[in-house]
Sequence to fold (104 residues):
Amino acid sequence: MPKTYRCHLFWCSHERDDDTKPSCARRGSWDIGTELKKAMRERGLRDQVAVTKSGCLGQCSVGPAMLVYPEGVWYSVPTLEDAMEILDKHLDKGEIVERLVIRD
Fold:
């Protein structure tokens, strides 16, 4: 039987070859995503929350970008502290971090 999670966060790890356009990886997404996944495990959320790196999420202009399902909430996560706030509030308690939400 497949593993089911309460929620799933995808973090963009895309790095563009072209320096003229932004990319999440060049803005620190690798370190942020790796530390977020580590912190999720340390808090004992591994069986409830999945944290997965992804390719381009199409939000490089406001990245590093993250996406949480099943809610479909898009986040701009410029710092590790912001990622930890998403972990504390959204991934652990189900509360959307409004100040980091990417709006249309």
